[in-house]
User: What shape does this take?
Amino acid sequence: VLSYALADAQGGAAAPSQFLLETAETLGYESLEAWRAASRRGDAELLDLGEIRRRAARRDALARALAEALAGDGVVEIAREIGRATGAIEPVAIADPGYRDSQGAAAEARGLSPTRLKVFNDCAYKHFARYVLGLDPRREEPPRLEDAGVQGTIAHRVLVALVEGAAKEIPALVLDAATIEMKRGEFTEEEHEILARIGADVARFAGAYPLWIEDPRWRPVGLECKLDALGDGPSPARLTVGGRAFSVEGRLDRVDLRVLPDGTRGVRILDYKYSTSGAAEYTVRKEIQKGIDLQLPLYLAVAAERLGAEPVAAIRAPLREGRMGGILDADDAAHWGLAPDVDSVCPKDTPLAEFLEETKARFAALAERIEAGEMLRRPRDPKTCEESRCAYRFLCRVQPWFERGRDAAEEGGDE
Assistant: This one.
């Protein structure tokens, strides 16, 4: 679908609605509604670029525009029109107009978040659709207490209130946080049950890990704070790699600082996780270990640089189940007074400092590929596409045979 949109992006001869009707006809659909229905069912015809060119050759206007449009910058509005027409996406503000000319500068000015890096690492095409074209498949809905994200936000706010010493009565804190989040003060019986569960989970965590709630040796210097709020550095926050400063943005749940008697400063980070299950937590920790999920090590490296401190630990704290785990030197934990109840996800025999340097190198490599405008349809996990689990599948339509052919080529077979 997007390939056809690109083909006519610079033609300008027909209005977008007329273009969509003609494209549906070329694809073999009797109407735009039939095309939309096929897209929603997930069985719209899959075409490779060669087939698109062959079909386009039968239509002079489309053929003339094809080569020029695929290399041009005029894809934004037509892609947004495709999204509106198929009902597959909800257009939002365009992130980087003028993609090829200003992508690098725009990314540097805004800052690269770990979430954006992970999206790019998973699929550069999805990154292009989400962060460059500004296409968002999510519908804006009012927050509901049933949503895992809302429950996580409430749990986070309760923990912040506990750390700040605002109150010690967890049920009251939960209700206050829920009232703020839901923008109302009356709850149904089912919602009260959810709130009671959140309160019980936070109370269990606080009881099991008291030194991660309040430890006189460690002073909180950031609670629910942005990276550029730490220290006195520039905004957005910067990370220096190989003599170059990259802009990074993100929000941290908690940042603690400790100063040893000899004046050495150390920093640790906590990332509270409320909705993550045991299986999902295991997957995330494996991705951290393999250098796929850069959030914790990247945040720790930036925080240490901004605070002029040694990086000590970056911990994922599951509030509902499982042990705490994260990035730390197990041998150095006692030196900094870390409780011995945290599992290290650093690769064995790899010091923390070395692991962070490897993370910074991976970050720089991804940032440079983003700035170069990479837009390959090569997802890290092809099953996401084949099983239609990606929210951008209506725009991308990566074919299973495309992935199989790529894998065969990489193994030395015929492409």
